[in-house]
Every structure is written in C-alpha cells, then in structure tokens.
Structure of DUF3298 domain-containing protein:
Amino acid sequence: MVNDEMLKKLKDQYIGVEVPDDEKNKLNEILEYAKIDRKRKRKKVIITRWMISVAALLLVVIMPNTNETLASSLKNIPLVGNIFSVITVRKYDEDKNIKINMAKIDSNGDIKNKKTVEKLNNDIKKYTNKIVNQYKVDLGSSGFSDLYMDYKIVINNDKWFTIAFTINETRASGYEFHRYYNIDKSSGKIVSLKDIFKEKSDYIKIISNDIKRQMKQQMLTKDVVYFIKDNGISTGFKEISGNQNYYINNEGNIVIAFDEYEVGPGCTGAPKFVISKDIVKKILNN
C-alpha cells in the first residue's frame, strides 16, 4: 500500500537524483498512480452509496417492461411502447450544491393518455425525491463542494435500451464516474456483462487481453497513458471486473467503459474500448 510518507520519499528521491528520461517517466507514472490509489478508495465509498440511490430510479426506468398492467396501459402512448421517450427534469439544491437531471415521460400531446402519463410522472417524481434526499444524507454531508448528476440515452434500438448516469464530484480536484444500465427490450430485464456470455466461459480474460492490446497500441500511436500491470507497473490494470460498465453499440460490438483514474492518469479521461463481436462470438449466449 502506498502511503503519504512513501509518496514523499519517492518524490524527494526523484527531485534529488538525475535519472534517464525513460526511468523518470516510469517514476512519474508510479507517483501519479499513488495519488490515484487514494482517490479510488474514496470513490468506492461514493459508488456504494450511489448504487443504493440509483436502484430506486431504475425501478422507474424499467417499470414499463416489468409491470404487465402498466405496460399494457402504456402500449398505445406515442413513442413509448416497450421503451418510453424521456425529457429532462432538473433538481437543484443550492445549499448543498447538488444538481440532478432526471427523466420524465412526454405524452406528446396525446390527451386520451394524459391520466396514465400523469400517474407515471408522479411515480417518477416520488422516486426522484427519494434519490435527492439520499444524496443530501450520503453525499451532501461528505464535504463535496459540488455534485452534479445527469443521464444520457446511449443506445435505443430494436434490441437494447442503454442509459448512462454520470456523476461529477469536485472538491480540491474533481473526477467523474459513470454507471451504465442495459435493458433487453424483449425481456425487460437489466443485463449485466456476464449475462451475455455462456456459463464458465473465460470472457473476462478474453476481453481484458484485447483491452491491454489496444492500450499498448494506443500508447505507441497516440499521446495517451495507461497503467498496465504487466507493463512494468506493479499495480495497474490487470483485468475487467465482474460488473464492468459496458454497452452494446449499434454494430453489435461490446463497448467497455472505464471511469476517470481507473486505468490511467486524469489526462486519460474516461476511456472506452470497442471489443469486436468476432472475438467473443464463440462464447456469447444465443
């Protein structure tokens, strides 16, 4: 574990000793990674609380697909069907600097479905208020100078509806993290990465190896830095997690998404890697 004292010693050694450029670059990476390690620990606490809060919102997002009575009443609403269209509702709390953009159903002027849409929007408002209150308790009291949450519809095709939530937190410095939720329109279920692969298939290794290949290639051809465990750094990216952020793009390829500081320094941002369906086609579920 890299602590503050070790970090200071490394920095003092770096300042006091003349070293070759390649070694200096490697030491810079280690120093940067030590800082990120501390950010990650703080982020894990935030994400755990965030997952509890967003669970309530997901009940609203998937409601038309999982509740047969409600799905039946919504099937004739324009642009709704299996997946509804959304507009943005903004929530603000100036005292705690919390800004949240949430979803709201748009009936598109269809009067005969007005009551149904109003009922659903009331439910959304109720869940949204719960989320805002949870943020005030869990996140607003954590000393953040600013907290902003937004959503984006990433994919909405015949097969998939993917919604991504982005949370930006700023204090002395800021970072953002994301959570992607993929809904199979045919079943109305939220699908995790492991669900799209056959049982006991080594999808984590296959995907991780391709990501590391892409990382190394990008570092040769682009001005980008990744921390790779088998690339001379003892602590770095080794493999994706079991609940890794992902979505399936319109071409049918898997897109793996990382948060800031997850696989590289802040300048790397929140990178995404496209995994060709040809690489994993033999282990995909039918």
